[in-house]
Amino acid sequence: MTYYPEPVARLIEALQRLPGIGPKTAQRLTFFLLKRPADEVRELADSLVAVKERIVSCSTCFNVTDQDPCRICADPARDTALLCVVEEPNDLLAMERTGEYKGRYHVLLGALSPLEGIGPDDIKVRELLQRLDAGGPTEVILATNPNVEGEATALYLARLLRPLGVRITRIARGLPVGGDLEYADQVTLSKALEGRREIV
Amino acid sequence: MQIGCVQLLDFRNYRTLSYRPSGRLNLLTGRNAQGKTNALEAVGVLLTGRSFRTTRLAELPHWGAEAAVLTGELQRSEGTRAIRRVLQRRENGTWQASGESCPWARVIAFGWQDLAIVHGGPSARRAFIDGCAARLYPSHLPALLRYRRLLEQRNRMLQTRASAERLAPWDEQVATVGMEMIDRRRRAVAALHAELTRVYPAVSGEPQKVQIGYRSVVGEATEPAALVAALEQARPVELRRGQTLVGPHRDDLAIELDGVDARAFGSRGQQRLLALALRLAEVLPVTEAAGTAPVLLLDDALSELDPGVRDNALREIQAAEQVFLTSPEPLVVSGAARWVVEGGGIAAA
Ligand SMILES: Nc1ncnc2c1ncn2[C@@H]1O[C@H](COP(=O)(O)OP(=O)(O)O)[C@@H](O)[C@H]1O
Ligand SMILES: [Mg+2]
Ligand SMILES: [Zn+2]
Description:
Chain A is 44% helix and 14% strand. Chain A is an alpha/beta fold. In chain A, the strands form two sheets. Chain A has a five-stranded mixed beta sheet with strand order 4-3-5-6-7. In chain A, strands 1-2 form a two-stranded antiparallel sheet. In chain A, helix 1 (6-16) crosses helix 2 (23-35) and helix 5 (89-98) crosses helix 8 (186-194). By secondary structure, chain B is α/β, with parallel strands linked by helices. Chain B has two domains: 1-106 and 292-349, P-loop containing nucleotide triphosphate hydrolases (Rossmann fold, 3-Layer(aba) Sandwich), CATH 3.40.50; 116-290, Up-down Bundle (Glutathione S-transferase Yfyf (Class Pi), Chain A, domain 2), CATH 1.20.1050.90. In chain B, 42% of the residues lie in helices and 24% in strands. Chain B has nine helices and 14 strands. In chain B, the strands form three sheets. Chain B has a six-stranded mixed beta sheet, with helices on both faces. Chain B has a five-stranded antiparallel beta sheet with strand order 2-1-4-5-6, covered by helices on one side. Classes of the chains: A alpha/beta, B alpha/beta. Chains A and B meet through helix 2 and helix 7 of A and helix 4 and helix 5 of B. The structure holds adenosine-5'-diphosphate, magnesium ion and zinc ion (ZN).
């Protein structure tokens, strides 16, 4: 084991806990940061703390936001008849970047995955039902990822929401198989939105 | 298509190799453990990113090497194309193959493991037909991976004794993806069958009737609903065992010679011949699907065959485009390029 001064070892440790970062990358990042000007490093540290302190989950749609309700939920120009269900805040951003969608969102904060022990009670399903009960949306667009977990989530929700009498659609599979929404380019996503089909 | 040249760096027992094979039949001979099979394997890995004899990438780089690099040039009538494959160790210690596969490059490999297609368990026959279907239909491999993930998820659901309502989204997907797989496998079997009925008698020299058919839990049904029904029926047992018991992962092929199950039929020589014929039967359909002939990697394909059968097999093999054929002892074939493999090197004989 190589010897590092304690603060260096601590940063390497911390960086390694991030997804996709192994010991070598953590070392590289640490020594990179050591060489940067103090201002720049402080800026990074401050923004890390700031996201944790100032960013909350929107109590309506569960998007990340610095105000509650979030800007989309608070925007009177957004169509309340359309509700787009996505897995993660990143997926919401991908939809927003298309510029095509003018409705509102519901972020599940996950997808069904028995292997990871994630069932309907572990994602924002109950909250979705409550929103629909309260009225407003006439169409729910299921825009979960096209992988098996996202598809299972869409199928589960479709069955669950059927008795409510809203129109339920699934965005079309122009998306790469097994691909994630987050990485889908804007054109693919706009097409997928256009070509959504009735699921029940 | 042909592979015009191959360069290897730290692949198996090859430290560095630069090899320009013939565009037709290449005969590789040499003593045991010199690198004949490794050379064929290298061509396969370069073209497809996968080995025909192991699923463990870690076995492929030269022992102790940090990476293996394979490069080459592909040729077909429309032009040439450089290809490159790098096997590298990731930070977490596992190995990763990078490099793009050429959309029209196809490899058909035969090795001793293929005997299992004829006399082994159903999983060997499923692997065989999936490989074949993947070469014919590019969407088969992604569907296969998707199906595997679905089974893992659904099995976990079964183990937690989930209700029918919670199982439904998984059942529905197993049924749609499963039926897609069954459909492509059936089409692959039909394409193989047509060629096999020509190839097998041509090589054996006897007018035997050979048949290959797909045996599925859903019988001849073509709709996902049939698989949903089969799952529903199996559910009590599935819940007890915590395992998905019906679907394409449990299907099988029936291979028959003169109406008799090939598993129970004949000598080892005959079984080898049948396994080889199954691979050769793929050449024509794959050529049609890819728009260019596949490269054939035939590892020790002629041993244990009678001399007459050997000659017939050679004639059939030479009808293909580029072929790499290994043999422990020298073979005399007119028009073939002859190579000697020794200690991780390949030299013209
Ligand atoms: N990863 C590896 N690194 C170095 N040598 C290897 C590796 N894998 C296999 N070998 C060696 O390759 C030789 C076998 O080569 P192979 O092509 O199977 O022989 P054959 O000519 O009989 O077909 C053996 O000597 C084996 O030790
Ligand atoms: Mg060998
Ligand atoms: Zn909101």
